[in-house]
Structure formats: C-alpha cells, structure tokens
Write a structure and sequence with these properties.
alpha+beta, two-stranded antiparallel ribbon, two-stranded antiparallel sheet, 13% strand, globular
Length: 92
C-alpha cells in the first residue's frame, strides 16, 4: 500500500481499501484479541480482488480482554473528542 498511484492505476479505490483495513484491524485487535506489531503500508498489499494481504508476521501478540476494552474506549474517545477519557484510560 506504499504506492498510491499504483493502487489507483490497478483500479482500487483507496477509500474502500482504507475502510477494509480499519475493519480488519478492529476485528483482529478488539474482537479476536491479537495484533500484528509491524502493520505499515510496506507490509500491506492490495490484491487484485480488493482484499488486503499482510506480510511479515515476525512480531505478533495477544491482547487480553481488559486491554481490548481499553483499546475500544480509547478509539471511541478519540473519535468522539473525549480526550479527558482517553487520558484517564491511559492512567488506568
């Protein structure tokens, strides 16, 4: 995903790919409880059918239920602008 021009030339909509990537991250981290610790655009590829493929699974980890709840609350706080709550969660 490092080369936006190539993605567009291949017929992909970057906004659609971004939505898929966000949903994949949220499902992995919050619903399933694991994370890819090196998920940057160089490790992500748009496949011809629109799916996103990740590589380099050298650093993976599990997220326990409590930390998943915190992550969800942090993301919700950032989206809604409740930065005081985001700070509170970090101290918890």
């Amino acid at each position: 995903l490092s080369h936006r021009d190539r993605i567009v030339a291949a017929g992909h909509d970057p906004s659609v790919l971004a939505g898929r990537l966000i949903r994949a991250f949220l499902r992995q981290a919050i619903a399933e409880g694991f994370f890819h610790a090196d998920m940057h655009q160089g490790n992500l590829f748009a496949l011809p059918d629109g799916r996103i493929a990740a590589i380099d699974f050298g650093i993976m980890g599990r997220i326990d239920r409590r930390a998943r709840v915190w992550l969800a609350e942090i993301l919700y706080g950032l989206i809604t602008g409740n930065y005081a709550r985001v700070a509170e969660i970090h101290f918890e």
